[in-house]
Request: fold
Amino acid sequence: MSRLFTRRKLLTGVALATPAVLVGCDRLGAAPSFRETVLRSGEWLSYRVHRLIGSNALAREYTKADLSPDFRTNGNTDPGTQEYRRHVSENFANWQLQVSGLVEQPKGYTLSELKSRPARTQITRHDCVEGWSAIGGWTGVPLRTILEDVQLKPEARYIVFQCADSFGRMSPTPYYESIDLVDAFHPQTILAYGMNGSDLPIGHGAPVRLRVERQLGYKHAKFIMRIKAVATLAKIGGGKGGYWEDVGFYDWYAGI
Reply:
């Protein structure tokens, strides 16, 4: 954990030392509502430095020889709902990923349809906010191609992922996360249905999870059921863009 946060502190330090070059960035970063979302911590500076480095800068990719022999699971390992168990029993044959919100063509995609589209395979390092890392191989459809297929409306600013798993004992809340369009259209951002050459295991988020390689593990939503394009995060959960963000554990921007 210390190494991850050391790097993030370094980014913050760079930003503080070079305020003049941080003027500008993208239109999202200039929006008052967006500043309110992330300005409460150094995440705002980390976000802007990452955008300065380059919107399409790639996370390091590894070889098969680097794969971790034991890749821990993070978060929930099984949604455990009747609906999810039914999908498992049917090998996800009747599961559909629903894409809606600020799009011109709302659509549902079966797992077979996702697998039939051009795919990307990448071997990357997963960094968990709890302080562990592991290297895994991921195969999936680039999120960019799905968003281009449904045609985002001009006012869309964020992509929200709604999942089958829940957190909270007294009042279980389905997990949700969000990213901005820069990360949504990044070439390494994929909807992964495969891991290390096999179907994505249940513990790792089957049938589909997000891989957004330049951010910490809790941003990699598992068990995705719905994707929604929105203009603001104000009406998503508690308004901070994700489950852990709303309960106050972590920041919205988890760049590393």
